[in-house]
Design brief:
The complex is a heterodimer. By secondary structure, chain A is mainly alpha-helical. Chain A folds into two domains: about 60 residues; about 55 residues, no CATH class. Chain B is mostly helical. Chain B folds into two domains: about 70 residues, no CATH class; about 150 residues, no CATH class. Chain B contains 13 helices and no strands. In chain B, helix 2 packs across helix 4, helix 10 packs parallel to helix 13 and helix 12 crosses helix 13. The radius of gyration of chain B is 20 Å and the shape is globular. The chains are: A mainly alpha, B mainly alpha. The interface between A and B is large, with 79 and 118 residues.
Chain lengths: ~120, ~250
């Protein structure tokens, strides 16, 4: 557990350092994730310890969003002033995005036996 | 100072509120309560644990007149874990490596289309209806999982805490509406269904996809991780010119 946490923090630190050094616009933890992904692909997979720690951390992933979400208290005025554009943009954009992604993927996979492991559920 | 607490209680609250312990404990209690309620409601998309916990905490802060800064002094310990948790997303992502290789081209094309659509449609619709620049920039990363979205918002000049709220609302919208939309479009393949909701509605959509089937969930998790990476790489180049063009 301690090893795995140290490893995650090291990858995050490396990500932050790379983002800062090369003045990259990508957040440090995302670079850390990409680095760890590359390392796992090279090594052939995570150690059982790392897998378990990641599982524990991600099991309560949504808890980690709560402190930031409470930050809405700082933006009540903005939300009250701009509720219409915010609401319409969120609803329309979410459904347009789902539709575009699904239609593109279906169009590209329709004629190939691409997902041989797909059990057609309907 | 506080709308609800009287003399002695108010003093006790001020004393306890000065230490980070209170904000941290309240966050964990509110979340566990929210998870219980969500289970009672059979994981109904509207009974989202994040939404419930945030609502409870906002009410408590309001009722006690506690500023967000004071609360965050404690809650920052939970918030800090977003960094290592984001790095840890590499592990479930790696578990999809085989699938990723096999379907690489179609998945990446759908990902690129979906990722661009998510950011551009939100910014354009918001702009047409008169949203301010800061709101538009904060809207752009709304389809990406919160830690990544907040990092992007910070980089491109939005408000990370506003983005966090918009991200959570986007997740809930997708989880509630996707089924009807798929029925309307005649999308039946669970791999396609999962991948699309993962792009548009990140972790909350992924949780919903896992309720539908294992296959939909795996593709949603894959889409969520990839869209986080792609959007983080794209938006800092895309949003500044887009905002200049809109002005």
């Amino acid at each position: 557990m301690l090893n795995a946490v140290t490893l995650l923090l090291l990858f995050q630190l490396a990500g932050e350092a790379i983002a800062l050094f090369f003045k990259l616009p990508v957040p440090g933890p995302v670079i850390g994730m990409a680095l760890l992904f590359a390392a796992l692909a090279r090594r052939g997979g995570p150690s059982p310890e790392l897998r378990e720690t990641a599982q524990n951390l991600l099991q309560h992933f949504s808890l980690l969003f709560v402190p930031a979400g409470v930050g809405v208290t700082l933006h009540f005025q903005r939300m009250a002033d701009e509720w219409l554009p915010i609401l319409v943009a969120l609803v329309a954009s979410t459904f347009i995005t789902i539709a575009v992604s699904a239609l593109v993927l279906r169009a590209l996979t329709r004629h190939e036996p691409a997902h041989a492991d797909t059990e057609r559920q309907r | 100072m506080s709308p609800l607490l009287g003399g002695n209680l108010s003093e006790l609250w001020v004393y306890l509120g000065a230490s980070p312990l209170l904000g941290l404990t309240l966050t964990l209690l509110a979340y566990q309560g929210a998870v219980l309620v969500s289970k009672r409601c059979d994981g109904h998309p509207l009974a989202n644990p994040v939404l419930l916990a945030v609502t409870a905490l906002v009410t408590i802060l309001w009722a006690t007149g506690t500023p967000y800064r004071t609360y965050f002094d404690g809650a920052q310990f939970v918030h800090f874990l977003l960094g290592p948790a984001t790095v840890a997303l590499a592990i479930p992502l790696h578990a999809q490596l085989g699938r990723l290789r096999r379907l690489a081209i179609p998945l990446l094309m759908a990902l690129l289309a979906g990722s661009l659509t998510a950011a551009c449609s939100a910014v354009l619709i918001g702009h047409l209806l008169g949203a301010s620049d800061v709101t538009l920039i904060s809207l752009a990363p709304k389809s990406v999982t919160t830690p990544i979205a907040m990092g992007i918002a910070e980089r491109i000049g939005g408000l990370p805490s506003l983005t966090a709220v918009l991200v959570i609302l986007t997740g809930i919208l997708g989880a509630v509406g996707a089924r009807s939309l798929y029925a309307l479009l005649g999308i039946e393949d669970h791999a396609v269904r999962g991948f699309a909701i993962g792009i548009a509605s990140h972790g909350i959509g992924t949780a919903r996809a896992f309720q539908v089937s294992e296959q939909a969930g795996a593709f949603a998790a894959l889409a969520m991780g990839l869209n986080g990476l792609l959007t983080a790489a794209l938006l800092p180049w895309l949003i500044p010119p887009l905002m200049r063009w809109l002005r």
